[in-house]
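Continuing the series of single-chain predictions for the mutant panel. This is the parent chain; the variants come on the following pages.
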Amino acid sequence: MTSAGDVDYSVIGVGYTNLRQPDPRIAAMIHAALGDARTILNIGAGAGSYEPLDREVIAIEPSEAMRAQRPSHLSKAIDARAEELPLADQSVDASMGIITVHQWQDLHRGLRELLRVTRGTIVLMVFEPAAAKTFWLGDYCPELAAVEARRDPPMHVLCDALSVGGRRVEVRPVAVPIDCTDGFSEAYYARPERFLDPAVIRSQSSWAFVAQDVRERVQRELAADLQSGVWDTKYGQYRTMPTFIGALRLVISTRIHP
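Parent structure:
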């Protein structure tokens, strides 16, 4: 299979792991949210970022290119999609999905499958569309902000879908550290020069929906503003912020009734 969703990771996934290394501080938040679960489904597992190493993980990943980049110490990923999980009802203690729901072909079907197979907690890391405007990159590329708002589901949709069957949902903002090792766009809030690197752009799937001439314009204008000092005049405060709370969220669905 190729990617289940709107981006072909056989193209953009090449070299993905070089720039998208799991950040240990974000990993700690995810692992804490999973609680004491021993068997964990990682849906849209990709190259294995943020998978706990001290528990049994069942990894689901439809992209051959991403499965091929999983390190040897992780479990082999199953070629399957969120909408058709090859697992029995209530067969895993917990489930996780890290920046993946925007890739699903049928969001509601995928969420129903998660609820079907998961006995306990479901943890999703997502971007909240309504909060995307807080990031300075949108001033340079409103086209990218529009793409992200279109791809990421509204928070109330996720919360409503995961609040069924005696469950409650909590949404936690994720503070992105200034030296974040996972190269999603907000990870470089204090390092604008990174957006001048074509490899960084290739590692962020939303840029695949932005025309080449737009990408070139953004890099040209950003480079000019960095050289002239305009960027630092407008946004220089970001360079010393130890963390940034933008659009990144943990959505945690916990079963409160048997």
